[in-house]
Specification:
mainly alpha
Length: 109
């Protein structure tokens, strides 16, 4: 019986992780009618075209190299806590849109 409960708990954890990821990507959960709407698409439709973002895009390779350097310098737990602070368990889970903010905070380590 406890094995079955463990499998159920693991399943709920997977569902919760999926919901957290959807929310972090700006997607909404299905409404009562089962329709899913995208926050990103609505925001893009409302924003004026041709408007560029103020902050430069940081690529994952740069962030990974920087965090690896910090880890090797003895700040492994701080790096892990920073990624967790953003709501993720590993760097590969962090969406591209949040890499710039993560990189900026990591520079303060």
């Amino acid at each position: 019986m406890s094995e079955g409960l463990m499998k159920m708990a693991e399943g709920y954890e997977m569902i919760a992780a999926g919901i957290r990821q959807m929310i972090s990507e700006g997607r909404r959960l299905p409404d009562a009618a089962g329709e899913v709407t995208e926050k990103k698409e609505a925001a893009e439709a409302e924003s004026p075209k041709g408007k560029e973002k103020d902050e430069p895009q940081i690529d994952r390779k740069t962030v990974r190299a920087f965090l690896t350097e910090k880890s090797r310098a003895g700040k492994t737990s701080e790096v892990k806590n920073l990624i967790t602070e953003f709501g993720y368990s590993k760097l590969s889970d962090v969406p591209d849109e949040k890499l710039g903010a993560l990189y900026q905070k990591a520079q303060a380590l």
